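Q: Convert this sequence to structure tokens.
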Amino acid sequence: MNTGVGRARIGQWYLRWDKGELFQVTGRDDRARTIEMQTFDGDLDEVDEAVWTTLPLSLAEPPEDWTGPMDDIETDDLGYSETDMQPSDWVEPLEPVRAAEEEWEDTRGEDERDPQGEGRPQEGLALDDPQARNRLG
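A:
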């Protein structure tokens, strides 16, 4: 079934189609011929290499927050740059929020609007047509 993914690669993320599950291969035991994996939720599982070849799998990109299944990750371990605020960051005032007009808003004054809000009909009413009035009458 997983002819496209081949052998399990440690550190690679996979999508299991039958369960809709995203997981990462975390290890391999060559003596026991098993593959260890961990789902994004943190669940650990192990499958035989023979079972691996029958699973409906495809390669997947790591999730945006790949730390989901990990416990006790320190910010320093993630490789992110420092984001600490400095006192000078608090000195600048906030930019004023400007209310933008929505496209649907009617900007005309209230005295210029149709009091019922219905607008002017595009077609005349049937009773306004003399021929139609004669047929009804």
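Residues 23-60 form one domain.
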